[in-house]
Design brief:
51% of the residues lie in helices and 0% in strands. With 85 residues, the chain is mainly alpha-helical. The chain starts with 14 loop residues before the first helix and ends in an 11-residue tail after the last helix.
Amino acid sequence: MKHGRQIDMTPYINPLAWSKYAITTLRDAERAASTAGVIDRLHLWPDHQALGSKGVISRQPDPVGYLKWLNTYWERISEWPGKTM
């Protein structure tokens, strides 16, 4: 407990819990960016090793769609502010 607040460490108890937490958090960021109208500017950095592992991919309801989703972020090229593409 720090500063009187309890920290929920459940997402970090094991790699499976962490991967579920990380994917949910990334999807939440996408929904928030979409709602705010800035989805075209969102650049997430899904961890290649952890979220792209065979185990995590195989546990997804749609492994092909999941890998496609990861690749959209892994292959995205960030633009510098003010620079035209």
